[in-house]
Amino acid sequence: MKLNKRVLLIFFVGLLVLSSCKRTNQETETVTLTDTPDLSYPAPLQTDSQMSGYPADIKEPTLEIAYPAPIVTDTPPMEETEFMELITEFTLDQPARVEWCTDQTCISVIGYDYLKVLSYPDFNELFSYEIAENEFLLDISPDGKTFATTNNNEDLQLRNWDLDTEKFIPTSTFFMGAEFSPDGSKIIVTSIDEWGAPIFDIDTAAQMVKLTGFETAAPVYDVRFGQSNDYAIWIARGTIQVSEISTNQLFPAIYHQDFIIGFDLNAEGTLLATSAAEAVNNEFLPTVFLYDFKSGELTQKFTTAKAVYGMKFSPDNSKLALSLGNSISLYDLETQQVANQFVSETEAISQVFFSPDGTILVSAGEGLHLKFFQLNQ
Questions:
Q1: Is pTM beyond 0.85 here?
Q2: Does pLDDT of 166 surpass 60?
Q3: Which of 8, 141, 209, 338 is most exposed, with minimal Cβ within 10 Å?
């Protein structure tokens, strides 16, 4: 296998190992450069330094200073209700990441060495692409038509299979990964040369801005979008921080006592959810946290029976779907109640996500078996 794939595979495996260091404790059964164009974007508002190359390690603030005061949230379980009905299911050939297409007529299946777009609800194959030996699949656009690959981790190759067009974007930096924005108009790359994240316009292939300012002692980090097109999320170990893309403003860093294993930012750009273990009476318990990320304030938190590796806000921002081992729960943001809606007898659930219209919830069992649930209001 070529070097770039090996480097990326080692990186992602390392990240998974780090994120699972305390999984045993977390699953306690208790109620988890570029020569840039001359741009006018300001320097990060919350940092004084401009980084040149990869910076030296920076000591993170201690938990006693940085960690917010505990907030006790009473989360009694909802009464069991029949508003989540299994309507269809589908099994993939091998584990993959799955995403809805924005018009809800298809799903994108992103494997390590292949890409498929399947129609919904009949799951006919609309497009299939096998990744070449010298290439790495990065992401596919929300409409399921444009996919990004690289063969050197410096240049982006964008292909639209529906229009049969190709576009080449030189990034002028060595990167670890790339991701399309929720509206498909931008793509962000995570630089290895420095703590930076150039963002490119898909139509023009021009660099719009390079986000900077995030600093961490962690050896690896990632930058990605939440559900909002206006913000990017930085994450490294137990630290998470949000940037406003238009101004390059970096909001307060939020620190956790253990590795962050799940997170999502809602479509309104108001709430950041994270999942990590927290010490309670000398025992680490899996905990879900909700933050006003602009102020860094912890607004709600609750412990869960098992670690939460998959979490996603509903499109209307009223609920937060959680995967807890082999079960799915829905957390109602208004009532602050949790309902256990589905339990699998055979597999761990690795991913949960809503359809674009919010009426269907999908679970991916161990990245392989998909179940589609109708949410009855």
A1: no
A2: yes
A3: 8
